[in-house]
Amino acid sequence: MSANGQNRHARTARLARKLAVAATGAAVLALPLIGATSASAATPAATTTAATATTAATTYPDNLDGWIRESLDIMAQHGIPGSYEGIHRNIMRESSGNPMAINNWDINAINGTPSKGLLQVIAPTFEAYHVPGTSWDPYDPVANITAACNYAADRYGSMDNVFGAY
After folding, report:
1. Which residues pair with residue 121 across a beta bridge?
2. pLDDT at 11 over 80
3. Burial of 18 (0-12, 13-18, 19+ CB in 10 A)
4. Which of 37, 76, 136, 140 is deepest in the core (most CB within 10 A)?
């Protein structure tokens, strides 16, 4: 092969390597844009792991934020409207975030059915608007929020529309 042919072959090989490196770099940069997290995202093992992760149960912190978020997820499954902000606003007005709050002084208490829990629900309302999959304990934060939001949705369209005692 002539010297000129060898030189052209070397240039072509260098160009091919540069293109390969550039294409690999572009692919790595594009992975986050297409939702992949690594080059092995398309392997069967990674696919199985991803499928398992999506079916794992969601865990929520055992605090007001977690109770509201869990309730919202349950509400979504049952078609009950409401937003985090609407629920939080009403909880702060009704119980200041205390899931064990009880009203022993209003007309409901005088009539023997005090309001209980985060959203101050009386027993007949809690029982009538209880949402399947939640506890039957009116002091259970998630059950209380979800039942109260179910009631508010029936009566006012959504907990978001409640701005006073309901």
Report:
1. 116
2. no
3. exposed
4. 140
